[in-house]
Amino acid sequence: MSATVIDGKAFAATVRAKVAGHVARLKEENGITPGLAVVLVGQDPASQVYVRSKGKMTVEVGMNSYEHKLEADTSEAELLALIDKLNSDPAVHGILVQLPLPKHLDEDLVINAIDPAKDVDGFHISNVGLLGTGQKSMVPCTPLGCLMMLRDHHGSLSGMDAVVIGRSNIVGKPMAQLLLGDSCTVTIAHSRTKDLPDVVRRADIVVAAVGRPEMVPGDWIKPGATVIDVGINRVDAGDGKTRLVGDCHYDSCAEVAGAITPVPGGVGPMTIACLLANTLTACCRANGLAEPEGLTA
Ligand SMILES: Nc1nc(=O)c2c([nH]1)NC[C@@H]1CN(c3ccc(C(=O)N[C@@H](CCC(=O)O)C(=O)O)cc3)C=[N+]21
To answer: Which GO terms describe its molecular function (predicted)?
Structure first.
């Protein structure tokens, strides 16, 4: 194994420490405590675990955490009424509606009901448009976390060839926008891409975000390239247990890559750290205060 391991878990801890420092100052100098509301509809066990860990880290950095757990059969009108209430609540600076929603709820409609200034996921159509035109916006947490790790590792990304595998609204598309914003030459590959191995072999930066366990093997990776693995897939480990793997085959990719993020302990913890960073940013903007440096795109 030759690749440098990019330790997302450790990086995330430094981001959270920075956020905590800013929060302490906001409280002391301005009497403001940033607040994050998380809305969970239904009882999906994985979502419950994730929401709990977000709530814990929110409190750890000194913010207020408001958790709203609704029944799986909650009506669209009820959910929209809650979002309205959170939109007008001055103690709430960030709102996250956990996805996916139960099938009877229209995700686009619900997300677009959030006040864009409080949309700490960056999924509202206004934020998508602002990001696409290079204007100040709320940036989706996972791509923001990937960008922070890439900037930290490389300094400048200018002129690098980046291939993003996956075209989701949550990761692939915003990731491509951010890389373009940092002057990469960006290719978005997906399930219909011809000669995917050859496309990936051109890349100085590979961001894999497809949700297919270990689909990228080491022989697709250009020697020395940086591999950012967004996938978090739970697979059978044999012995009746499960384990987490990424979208990249870690051992073979690590042999040829220059740097690689592990799963777990890579992109996942950075996603949560960036959610807190976005909540801080939203709070500063709402109060007309200077934004923290190094925590936004
Ligand atoms: N509106 C919305 N925003 C989201 O950001 C969002 C969402 N809905 N729905 C669910 C997904 C999933 N997600 C994760 C974030 C961190 C880890 C994470 O930290 N994972 C650990 C491992 C955790 C474990 O051991 O299971 C790691 O990768 O090291 C995982 C999953 C955010 N999501």
So the answer is: methenyltetrahydrofolate cyclohydrolase activity; methylenetetrahydrofolate dehydrogenase (NADP+) activity
Establish whether this prediction's ipTM goes over 0.90: yes
Q: Ligand 1 atom closest to Cα of 265?
A: 29
Looking at residue 44, its pLDDT comes to 86
- What is the architecture of the domain spanning 141-268? 3-Layer(aba) Sandwich (3.40)
What is the pTM assigned to this prediction? 0.98
Instruction: Check pocket membership of 268 for ligand 1, CB cut-off 6 A.
Output: yes
Q: How far is CA 232 from CA 80, 81, 163, in A?
A: 30, 33, 19
CATH superfamily membership of 30-114: Leucine Dehydrogenase, chain A, domain 1 (3.40.50.10860)
The response to whether 166 counts as a known ligand-binding position is yes
Ligand 1 geometric centre to CA of 96 (Å): 13
22-33 burial, b at 16+ Cβ within 10 Å, e below that, comes to bbeebeeeeebe
